[in-house]
Specification:
Largest sheet: none
Structural class: mainly alpha
Distance between the termini: 25 Å
Oligomer: single chain
Strand content: under 5%
Number of strands: 0
Order of helices and strands: HHHHHH
Length: 107
Amino acid sequence: EFIDALVDTIIPKTDSPSASEVGTTEFLVSVINQCTEQRDKFNFYRGLDQIHESSIKQFQKKFDELDFEKKQAVVNDLEQHLPYLLKRIKQKFLGASFLDQLISITF
């Protein structure tokens, strides 16, 4: 599935399970659908559409059909759209200090 491929590109399987293996997709979709305003839902799903379109444009394949390096390239190209989403998540769900700590150990 597309969202599984996306979350696994961001948090791939290493010695630890991948993001999709620990239920990140289900959690993310649930939070977006049940806990966000319409504008944020629209922006989230629009962002997914942009990832799909970028994948087709760059590689003539669906995102979930790409190898890992090409998936990373697509995500990196669209990173400019993440600050808005991260800010909204920070404000609404996680609290500033938790998200700041998560970002510092992840990136």
